[in-house]
Design a protein that fits this description.
Distance between the termini: 44 Å
Helix content: 25-40%
Shape: globular
Radius of gyration: 21 Å
CATH class of the largest domain: Alpha Beta
Strand content: 15-25%
Number of helices: 11
Order of helices and strands: HHHEEEEEHEHEHEHEHHEHEHE
CATH topology of the largest domain: TIM Barrel
Largest sheet: 10 strands, mixed
Strand order of the largest sheet: 1-2-3-4-7-8-9-10-11-12
Bound molecules: S-adenosyl-L-homocysteine, iron/sulfur cluster
CATH superfamily of the largest domain: Aldolase class I
Length: 366
């Protein structure tokens, strides 16, 4: 993605920001809707072509601002149709985004940070460390770019966006909220709240704020049914344990009138995949507006963990079903191009000094 540009990137302004900007240039508030339409609904990268905007405003925008379009470093295509783009993040770094076409939906999985500081013990992004937050323009630029690339090959636009790429979106709250505004704005991407999913490992204070500032679907990276195990797998749990996290999820649903929270649960052989774990998870979620998405662990270089067997995963799901908890098994997509969940690594110059987690971790062989 482009070097940090001296000129502000237009892709980074939501409707409120763009209204201020255009009024400041002598325009009218409704011009913001027109510019949003050009940039995001039509995917334009040329301010001078925005014919319904006064010429002097277009000139100002063209000289003092940039679009902020991402620069593609590499593009990969999986045998199953999944595609991955490596995008320039400046300074020799890169982030990744993944497009997953399915018959019923066309999902784009986007990144929110260059790396991640939260250090979950089974995640390739976490293993790379953290460098910086992405800007709103860099976050939204991924959706903008995917739609352009799809249009070029005569394909339909993205129908769903999930924040399940590199980074912890709620750790980049200030840049995230305008991006969510753009995704759900009727003049920009027009996604309904159910088609945009923020996935978090459980930053409770930011989750509480999100219920006030946005209205999108929520996925929570659970991965363990008790604090002792979750502390090891998802170290942020040491700060915000399950007893804080779950009430924050139900509160979020009440505020946003959402129907359910999806709990992601990576199935790691001999670590969190036993029937006892499923029963404990069922007790936690019973009677709550929850669904569980079981993700077969995806291996990556340097990590000793192993994927649970298909039979173990099915058994785990059945225990949840018997307790009346909805549970699905996520289909692994794009693993031949390292595009599956948790395999995104990009290129990160780690700046973290203190690493949580991983130490003292031990894999039980079942
Ligand atoms: N930081 C956010 C979103 C990015 S990770 C979060 O943690 O929710 C997206 C999902 O992939 C999360 O549920 C994450 O726990 C899961 N994941 C990470 N590493 C994985 C791996 N190696 N195999 C399978 N899923 C993994
Ligand atoms: Fe960060 Fe999410 Fe990976 Fe944990 S699972 S290290 S929060 S990207």
């Amino acid at each position: 993605m482009s070097k940090i540009a001296a000129k502000p990137a237009l892709l980074g302004f939501d409707r409120a920001g763009l209204t201020d900007l255009l009024v400041g240039l002598g325009g009218k508030p409704f011009h913001a809707k027109q510019v949003l339409k050009w940039l995001h609904a039509r995917g334009s990268n040329d301010v001078r072509a925005m014919t319904d905007i006064a010429t002097h405003i277009r000139e100002k925008l063209a000289t003092d601002y940039v679009i902020g379009e991402p620069q593609v470093l590499e593009h990969f295509e999986s045998a199953d149709g999944t595609r991955k783009w490596l995008l320039d993040a400046g300074g020799g770094q890169a982030i990744e985004m993944v497009f997953i076409p399915e018959p019923a939906r066309r999902t784009l999985c986007i990144s929110s940070q260059v790396g991640c500081a939260l250090d979950c013990s089974f995640c390739s992004t976490g293993a790379q460390g953290f460098n910086r937050n992405l800007t709103t323009a860099e976050i939204i630029g991924q959706v903008w770019l995917a739609n352009r690339e799809l249009a070029h090959s005569g394909e339909q636009r993205v129908t769903n966006v999930v924040f399940m790429g590199m980074g912890e979106p709620l750790a980049n709250y200030r840049q995230l909220v305008p991006a969510l505004n753009l995704l759900t704005d009727d003049f920009a991407y027009m996604f309904s709240r159910r088609r945009v999913t923020v996935s978090t490992s459980g930053l409770v204070p930011q989750l509480e704020k999100l219920g006030h500032d946005a209205n999108v679907a929520l996925a929570v990276s659970m991965h363990a049914p008790n604090d002792a195990l979750r502390n090891q797998l998802v170290p942020i749990n040491n700060r915000h344990p399950i007893s804080e996290l779950l009430p924050a999820c139900w509160d979020y649903l009440r505020r946003t009138s959402g129907r359910s929270v999806t709990f992601e649960y990576t199935m790691i052989h001999g670590v969190n995949d036993q029937v006892e774990h499923a029963r404990e998870l069922a007790r936690l979620l019973k009677g709550q507006p929850a669904k569980v998405n079981l993700i077969p662990y995806n291996p990556f270089a340097g990590n000793p963990m192993k994927r649970s067997s298909a039979a173990t995963i099915r058994k785990f799901r059945d225990v949840l079903h018997h307790a009346d908890i909805r549970a699905t098994i996520r289909k692994t997509r794009g693993d031949d191009i390292d595009a599956a969940c948790g395999q995104l690594a990009g290129q990160v110059n780690d700046r973290t000094t203190v690493r949580l987690g991983r130490k003292n971790f031990h894999v039980v062989t079942a």
